[in-house]
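Help needed: design a sequence for this.
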């Protein structure tokens, strides 16, 4: 097998665990994030099968850097977007909201768009991204986070329809985990139903192989999101979460 993928956001958390699993399956990987040190640690595991690159998705050159990495790998079949930031922001600090928008909305659009145009030209490919269950409702404690996650999910849905209309063979996988024990959930708040990134990554890789369009991880969150979708707005806006 000579499958090739790029993971942006591979330096920690879920992206890193997905990289480890794909490496174990024999994939060639291009790994990117802002921090080079953790990427080099991954490269050390299989130097001949791993390329690394510093990419900050909020910077205007990030799309060009992605194309350079794709070229260096002589093409890819899978683009996996794991980059993201998230904060609770109950006091609505402007800086937190805007940085979240920059990374999760603008940066996401930049990178997913670059991958989409690359696969469109090539005629086929697979785009996968970690959005979140946080995108399925507006969450008072994390407004920019939940809004950008909704945006990401809608964007993928729109691209999937557009690809279909254009007769492009591009597959999409929208991955929506519940709470995962990573650096993103830093702080002393105790999150319920916390999952381990290794288990989440196994579910993700399974979903990639089975070409799932949308994957909510895990079953408890599938139930939770099913029920909270049914909550009418007049109740939702009064709920303490
Ligand atoms: N943890 C959860 O409970 C949870 C739940 C649902 C969805 N998610 C989503 O899962 C994804 C991965 O998060 P995680 O939980 O694994 O957290 P994490 O360990 O903090 O990983 C975030 C990754 O994104 C990268 N990143 C952040 N800003 C970036 C930027 N400007 N440019 C390039 N890369 C950037 C980070 O690398 P550098 O810092 O090296 O750039 C890191 O590799 C995120 O999209 C998150 O929203 C997480």
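Sure. Designed sequence:
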């Amino acid at each position: 097998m000579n499958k090739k993928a790029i993971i942006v956001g591979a330096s920690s958390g879920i992206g890193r665990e997905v990289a480890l699993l794909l490496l174990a399956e024999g994939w060639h990987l291009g790994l990117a994030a802002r921090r080079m040190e953790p990427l080099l640690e991954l490269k050390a595991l299989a130097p001949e099968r791993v390329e690394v690159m510093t990419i900050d998705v909020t910077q205007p050159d990030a799309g060009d850097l992605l194309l350079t990495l794709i070229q260096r790998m002589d093409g890819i079949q899978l683009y996996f977007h794991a980059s993201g930031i998230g904060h609770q922001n109950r006091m609505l600090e402007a800086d937190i909201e805007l940085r979240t928008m920059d990374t999760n909305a603008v940066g996401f659009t930049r990178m997913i768009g670059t991958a989409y145009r690359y696969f469109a030209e090539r005629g086929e490919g697979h785009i996968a991204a970690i959005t979140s269950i946080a995108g399925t409702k507006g969450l008072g404690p994390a407004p920019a986070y939940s809004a950008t996650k909704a945006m990401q999910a809608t964007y993928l849905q729109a691209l999937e329809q557009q690809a279909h209309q254009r007769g492009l063979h591009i597959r999409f996988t929208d991955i929506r985990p519940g709470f995962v024990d990573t650096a993103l959930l830093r702080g002393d708040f105790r999150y319920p139903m916390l999952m381990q990134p290794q288990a989440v990554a196994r579910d993700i890789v399974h979903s990639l192989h089975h070409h799932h369009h949308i994957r909510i991880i895990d079953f408890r969150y599938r139930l939770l999101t099913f029920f909270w979708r049914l909550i009418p707005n007049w109740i939702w806006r009064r709920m303490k979460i």
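The chain has a mean pLDDT of 96.
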